[in-house]
Amino acid sequence: MSVTVPHLGGNMSALAPPLPQTHPPSHIHKRLAHYTITRFQANTTPTIFHPNISKAPAQWSSMPKSAIGQLEQIAAQIHKQLNRGMVPEMNLPTRSKANIIFDQQQQVWKYGKSRTTRTAKKLDGAYMLLRTTYLLDFIRDMVGQQKSSTLRELYYISEGWDLGKFHSQDESNKLIEDLEIVTNFQREDFKIRPEEDGAKVLGDLTLTEINRKGKPMRINCRDDVGDTGYAIPYNVEPEKITFNNSGNARCIIAIETGGMFDRLVENGFDESHGAILVHIKGQPARSTRRFLQRLSDETSLPLLVFTDADPWSYRIYGSIAYGAIKTAHISHLLATPSARYLGVTPSDITNYELPHDELTERDRQALKSMRSDPRFLNDYWSSEIELQLEMGLKAEQQALAKYGLDFVTDTYLPEKLAEVGL
How far is CA 349 from CA 309, 357, 413, in A? Predict the structure, then answer.
């Protein structure tokens, strides 16, 4: 993160070029200066630590202080420069698809070298900085109150921020992502969470989770949970979850659909084949991908992805293994390049004579786009993509039920596991 400050001199009304009459040149800048200076008083070091944070429950007191420190730096610099009559600028990677590259060495999406400057000399930049100060203040108060906020709640809370309020959910989401990029921390470190809940886990995995009262709870994800399994929380960082041991597990299987997850649980596949089963609920949430990455890395268990046989499901695998463009700034935290695709494959549709549907034109276009997707540029995927386009067919996981409720656990998955040496 770098913040540069061109000195313009003079008073706050000189901080912007002429703007439309509906937005007087100094209107937003004065509000930004007033809010920042009154909230972060002159001659003091701005802090978003609550005075009683040391007395807060463990999950709050263990909140990464380096993450908080990064937010403090942003607040301090905005306060300092505006107090001196300077215009702050924030420099960060250009957030465009053209500036996202696939790192062949690390096998993940990353931001390129292009950077952009957001300056309060421009109206949009001034609004962005005003919202940033409100957001930093909100996080400070929220931490002090020992609470967290959903992304949606944050959007509505901004209704009380006067000129700083967001005009759309997308605006608030992007500002949170900006803070992630600038600080190199995740939104979860700032107690901002998504609406969707995490995945479900069932298998011989023992972990310790810090509960909402700050006390550690040791949980076995097979013996200490019901049939629905252990629910992954939105924060899965080490200060929240510790993996103790993985028992006799031999692999982790990430499963796209709830129906197939329930089938494997009911048939006892976790015990019969030493599998830690994870229902990823379609396109997996960030917490799910982070959980899978940490679990595979810290237990050295292979991660296998089991989905439907269509291009959208292959992209689910791609996001788990190599990350997604939208989260390129934290691919190193979410991606598991060693993950392998288990099925269902286009070849399986033919080899197992599975019930199927015809590809739609949208499906075909998605498959064709995969020809140039760096995540799928290898002989295996090239062959499967061309085969599927030639067949013009797709199939669901549960099409395997054609041969009975036990076929997937007695025959299909054991054969697929054997193919990958398990």
Answer: 8, 10, 14
What number of CA atoms fall less than 13 Å from residue 320's CA on the CB side?
34
Q: How far apart are CA 285 and CA 290, in angstroms?
A: 9
Give the residue from 388, 420, 421, 416 showing the smallest Cα distance to 400.
416
Model pTM greater than 0.85? no
Tokens of 384: 């499967």
CA distance 236 to 415: 33
Please report, for residues 195, 263, 327, the alpha-carbon distance to residue 2 in angstroms, rounded to integers and kept in the order given: 31, 51, 21
Cβ–Cβ under 8 Å, residues 132 and 88: no
Which residue of the set 156, 314, 317, 380 is catalytic? 156
SS (H, E, C) 81-120: HHHCCECCEEEEECCCHHHEEEECCCCEEEECCCEEEEEC
Report residue 415 as tokens.
């054969």
How is residue 369 written in tokens? 């786009």
Instruction: Rounding to the nearest 10 degrees, give the CA dihedral for residues 328, 330, 336, 342.
Output: -50
Structure tokens at 375: 């995540």
Q: Mean pLDDT across the stretch 273-292? A: 92
pLDDT tens across 67-112, in order? Answer: 667 777 777 777 777 777 777 767 777 777 777 777 777 777 777 7
27: exposed, middle or buried (Cβ count in 10 Å: 0-12, 13-18, 19+): middle
CA-CA-CA-CA torsion sign (153, 155, 159, 162): positive
CA distances 245 to 73, 227, 299, 353, Å, are 39, 21, 8, 40
Query: How are strands ordered across the β-sheet holding 89-93?
Result: 2-4, 89-93, 115-119
Q: Tokens 């949430």 sit at which residue?
A: 285
**How many residues make up the chain in this entry?**
422
What whole-number distance in Å separates Cα of residue 261 and Cα of residue 279? Answer: 6
pLDDT single digits (tens) 388-420 = 999 999 999 999 999 999 999 999 999 999 998
- Is 156 among the residues known to form the active site? yes
